[in-house]
Write a structure and sequence with these properties.
mainly alpha; about 220 residues; 6 helices
């Protein structure tokens, strides 16, 4: 049975969608906390930067929710529906196993009488045992034949069933990360200072941090 593998995949996807939503909400909270910081009221440039960040986070959160809903509808729900057939399938296997046990028990009974001396009473019991065995054997053979015919088709159909879901998942990932690239690309253009390299920004930040460290109120005792 592949039930555990399919169920594990469903749980993994559910965990991923929960994680994406949580990260998006965390980013939203950061931008809101920054907007409520008194520094933004004192510095218009900082306010503009934080507002741009907040707008980007809202776009990201909305798109992330759309992605989560799409994955829920096209991947997770089909996985759950597929898993719902397993109880019936397992029951068919159990019925076949029970039929096999009944068949073996009666077959052993027939063989026991066949090994005994062929007296009148023994022959009568042998005939009765064979009559009891016949419908049980037919029942087992029918159940066994059904599983042999249908189980390969069941497993073979999984690929056809899941392929559209996996294609949808891949497309959702491509669109999601493309949109993320666009959102943060737009944000970078709004916040970027022309002519400033990453090294220059790092030096400027270090210089400002050194100025803060030089203040008496933060000096080491």
């Amino acid at each position: 049975m592949k039930k555990s593998t399919d169920a594990d995949l469903g749980r993994w996807l559910s965990t991923c969608t929960t994680g994406w939503a949580a990260m998006s909400k965390s980013a939203m909270k950061i931008s809101l906390d920054l907007l409520s910081n008194p520094l933004c009221e004192q510095d218009q440039d900082l306010l503009n930067m934080v507002t741009a960040l907040d707008t980007a986070m809202k776009r990201l959160d909305a798109f992330n929710q759309e992605k989560v809903n799409q994955i829920q509808k096209t991947v997770i729900e089909p996985l759950k529906k597929f898993g719902s057939v397993f109880p019936s399938l397992n029951m068919a296997v159990k019925r076949r196993e029970q039929a096999l046990q009944d068949y073996r028990r009666l077959q052993a009974k027939v063989e026991k009488y066949e090994e005994k001396e062929k007296t009148g009473p023994v022959l009568a019991k042998l005939h009765q045992a064979r009559e009891e065995l016949r419908p049980v054997r037919e029942d087992f053979e029918a159940k066994n034949r059904q599983l042999l015919e249908e189980m390969p088709r069941f497993y073979g159909s999984r690929l056809d069933y899941f392929q559209p879901s996996f294609e949808s998942l891949i497309r959702a990932q491509v669109v999601y990360y493309s949109e993320m690239h666009k959102i943060f690309g737009d944000l970078t253009q709004q916040l970027d200072q022309p002519g400033h390299s990453d090294e220059q920004r790092e030096r400027e930040n270090e210089a400002k941090l050194s100025e803060l460290r030089a203040l008496s109120i933060v000096a080491d005792d």
